[in-house]
């Protein structure tokens, strides 16, 4: 996404959330917010609390977003760019809303043959490495809830496929055999296995530096009696910074019901 | 070997399932946004958001190192002109994009506030605002201000109440002394991430680096007493200490990044005193009453201008001083100044003139003006707004900027490529600081450096003794500060003055200086040998 992509992104974001576009030109966009968006974005909880208490309908705000730097002086409005708090706020909304889904493959079917849809669970997880260096890895694991078959890089596979939010006509969903908890457990086990296998360099180097700093610290502590808390603090700091750790965090989680054909494609 | 894996995926998945289901596009976007905000390998996510910015390789590496290995708390100690501000901007932008940093406090010398504000806004789209008395500290997320303002009451109390995500201190060598109010104040500011910027992390003693590290990584170097004891031990321990320091410090040297730089040409321009001037100059030696060091100082002053010399004399109310002042009044225009003025006219390009004396500054401005050249002055006494205005004039209208070393700290003047050292500084580090104003990140043309030298004077002595030996210093200059402190020679300037004033002949002075350089160099090769074996 570049600066020029921000305006189309905003238009899509606001229209898909039922806000109306008041004015649109190159680099300038004015949007009349919905009540929900106003509450999420404009940070005026007292106003909304007051309005609701009186049982009235609140007046939502209109906001002008300027995405072309040269137009910053021409018009009143918010200059929006990467790293601006507003864009970050919008990103947060998407991340929060996009944390969970249930979707169905948008397949065409006719009345004579009913199409069964196979259940998959997609786990998108952020793997954070912390140690001599910090880095993130995003993994997308799909697990078929019938037999536990797993597939990595799942999002890449289905990125261009069409999914809808309700069961398409003449389709029905097959029941799951593996429970969600069990499926997540298996995904986690597999992930941990893989992380341990591929991160030996990261782990070794982190341990080496960790121990070197701990040794150094020992030499630097002259008086063991004095201020033990401070030394413990220094040790904790070194541990936090260098001891190899991996955090697994959810990005999002979704049930995907797909046709038998797609299910087969995913496994092959 | 063990690795600790932290996860609560199963229990957290229960919470996720209670949410409303989203549509396909939002689900995909949530993944894309997370990806955008993640550290993918060693790459900086912020670069794709800053298409106009083209950081140099060492700047990118520095930012990556600070982010990925130093966890956002570090001393950025590149030599002057290598773009520490760019590095700090990159780091800040990266953390802001990832949503890790919102509230930022930037402390700079007051002359650089405007520059920081502009650079952050224009180069990085970071909405930095200079603090103004009309609004509160909390009004803007990213505030730029000077330590001097920040440490005053009630600002100090208000700042200490805040939880900042990031603290940036520019020209952080001002914090080298842990006894000062500045130091104690900065140490108390609460911030998750912290960058200290300085070109000279060690000016005199290794203690200074201890104090800076104590801010970015408290406890890393243990207690001060133990730290000092360790330093006195074997070279191996010392080397280990240095490595430890390096885990929180990035230092790029100009010579390591050289191929990216435009060329630097150095030329010496000679002037000759008129007979009367020479006679006055020679008579300084005959002033029995004065100490050798005082005589040297007086000579240096007179080599700069009558006005500089006058200022020195005027401090004494003795009859002798008054007589000397009367002699001064009779002298013609200063030979070196005339020579320089003609040179600037011939040059026909903008140039920066460095002098050690404020009196000379005013004299030169007057002289240039008499001959149709527009010159502006700049020094540490000016108020912030005046400084800004002078720089603006220099960029847009004036032909010449006349400045002192005190005034020029941290300035970016790469729009100009000529620099005249009207007076030579004692310390070659200072020379590097000066040249760094124009020979820096962003300079597109070759730069031209000129020394102004009066023949048969202390000017020439300094040139021959010190500056002709600069190539001997080659490779040491960048580290001179560190080396001198390592070998226990406190201050290069004092050392030089002593050599010059206490040597019976030039040869003696030359030999003494050679010795000093020899010691510095042998010390350096020792360090190198240790580095290579480790």
UniProtKB/TrEMBL annotation, chain A:
InterPro entries: YqhG. This is YqhG family protein. It comes from Allobacillus saliphilus.
TrEMBL record, chain B:
The keyword ATP-binding applies. InterPro entries: DEXDc_RapA (IPR057342), Helicase_ATP-bd (IPR014001), Helicase_C-like (IPR001650), P-loop_NTPase (IPR027417), SNF2-like_sf (IPR038718), SNF2/RAD54-like_C (IPR049730), SNF2_N (IPR000330). Residues 336-517 form the Helicase C-terminal domain. SUPFAM superfamilies: P-loop containing nucleoside triphosphate hydrolases. Residues 65-219 form the Helicase ATP-binding domain. It comes from the Bacteria. GO terms for molecular function: ATP binding; helicase activity; hydrolase activity. This is DEAD/DEAH box helicase. Keywords: ATP-binding, Helicase, Hydrolase, Nucleotide-binding. It comes from Allobacillus saliphilus.
């Amino acid at each position: 996404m570049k600066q020029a992509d921000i305006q189309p992104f905003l238009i899509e974001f606001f229209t898909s959330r039922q806000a109306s576009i008041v004015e649109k030109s190159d680099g300038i966009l004015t949007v009349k917010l919905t009540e929900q968006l106003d509450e999420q974005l404009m940070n005026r909880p007292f106003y909304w609390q007051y309005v609701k208490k009186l049982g009235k309908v609140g007046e939502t705000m209109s906001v002008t977003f300027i995405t072309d730097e040269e137009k910053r002086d021409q018009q009143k409005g918010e200059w929006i760019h990467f790293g601006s708090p507003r864009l970050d706020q919008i990103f947060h909304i998407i991340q929060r809303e996009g944390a969970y889904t249930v979707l169905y493959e948008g397949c065409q079917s006719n009345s004579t043959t009913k199409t069964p849809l196979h259940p998959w669970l997609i786990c998108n997880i952020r793997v954070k490495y912390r140690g001599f260096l910090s880095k993130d890895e995003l993994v997308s694991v799909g697990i078929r809830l019938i037999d536990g078959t797993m597939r990595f890089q799942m999002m890449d596979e289905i990125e261009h496929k069409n999914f809808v939010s309700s069961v398409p006509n003449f389709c029905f969903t097959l029941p799951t055999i593996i429970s969600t908890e069990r499926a997540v457990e298996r995904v986690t086990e597999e992930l941990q296995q893989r992380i341990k296998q591929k991160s030996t360099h990261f782990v070794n180097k982190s341990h080496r530096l960790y121990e070197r700093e701990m040794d150094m610290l020992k030499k630097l502590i002259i008086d063991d009696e004095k201020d033990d808390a401070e030394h413990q603090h220094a040790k904790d700091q070194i541990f936090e910074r260098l001891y190899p750790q991996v955090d697994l965090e959810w990005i999002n989680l979704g049930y995907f019901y797909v046709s038998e054909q797609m299910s087969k494609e995913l496994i092959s | 070997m063990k690795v600790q894996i932290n996860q609560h995926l199963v229990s957290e998945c229960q919470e996720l399932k209670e949410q409303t289901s989203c549509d396909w596009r939002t689900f995909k976007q949530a993944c894309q946004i997370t990806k955008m905000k993640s550290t993918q390998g060693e790459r900086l996510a912020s670069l794709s958001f800053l298409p106009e910015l083209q950081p140099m390789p060492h700047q990118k590496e520095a930012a990556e190192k600070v982010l990925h290995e130093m966890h956002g708390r570090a001393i950025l100690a590149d030599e002057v002109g290598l773009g520490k501000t760019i590095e700090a901007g990159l780091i800040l932008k990266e953390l802001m994009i990832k949503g890790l940093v919102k509230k930022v406090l930037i402390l700079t010398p007051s002359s650089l506030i405007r520059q920081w504000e502009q650079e952050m806004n224009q180069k990085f789209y970071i909405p930095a605002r200079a603090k103004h008395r009309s609004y509160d500290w909390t009004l803007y997320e990213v505030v730029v201000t000077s330590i001097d303002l920040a440490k005053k009451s009630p600002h100090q109390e208000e700042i200490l109440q805040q939880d900042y995500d990031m603290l940036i201190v520019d020209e952080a060598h001002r914090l080298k002394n842990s006894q000062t109010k500045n130091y104690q104040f900065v140490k108390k500011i609460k911030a998750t991430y912290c960058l200290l910027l300085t070109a000279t992390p060690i000016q005199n003693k290794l203690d200074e680096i201890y104090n800076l590290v104590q801010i970015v990584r408290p406890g890393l170097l243990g207690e001060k007493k133990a730290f000092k004891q360790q330093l006195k031990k074997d070279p191996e321990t010392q080397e280990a200490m240095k490595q430890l320091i390096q885990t929180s410090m990035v230092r790029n040297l100009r010579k390591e990044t050289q191929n990216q730089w435009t060329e630097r040409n150095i030329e010496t321009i000679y002037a000759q005193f008129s007979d009367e001037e020479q006679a006055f100059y020679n008579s300084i030696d005959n002033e029995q009453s004065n100490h050798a060091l005082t005589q040297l100082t007086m000579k240096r002053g007179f080599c700069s201008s009558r006005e500089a010399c006058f200022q020195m004399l005027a401090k004494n109310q003795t009859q002798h001083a008054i007589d000397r002042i009367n002699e001064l009044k009779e002298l013609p225009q200063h030979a070196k100044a005339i020579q320089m003025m003609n040179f600037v006219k011939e040059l026909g390009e903008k140039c920066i003139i460095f002098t050690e004396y404020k009196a000379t500054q005013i004299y030169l401005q007057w002289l240039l003006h008499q001959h149709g050249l527009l010159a502006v002055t700049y020094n540490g006494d000016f108020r912030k707004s005046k400084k800004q205005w002078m720089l603006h004039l220099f960029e847009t209208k004036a032909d010449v900027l006349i400045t002192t070393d005190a005034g020029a700290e941290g300035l970016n003047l790469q729009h100009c490529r000529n620099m005249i050292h009207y007076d030579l500084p004692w310390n070659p580090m200072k020379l590097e600081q000066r040249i760094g104003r124009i020979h820096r990140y962003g300079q597109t043309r070759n730069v031209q450096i000129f020394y102004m030298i009066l023949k048969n004077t202390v000017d020439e002595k300094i040139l021959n003794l010190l500056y002709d030996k600069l190539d001997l210093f080659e490779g040491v200059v960048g580290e001179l500060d560190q080396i001198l402190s390592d070998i226990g020679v406190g201050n290069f300037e004092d050392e030089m003055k002593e050599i010059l004033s206490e040597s019976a002949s030039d040869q003696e002075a030359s030999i003494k200086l050679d010795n000093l350089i020899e010691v510095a160099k042998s010390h350096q090769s020792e360090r190198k040998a240790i580095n290579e074996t480790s």
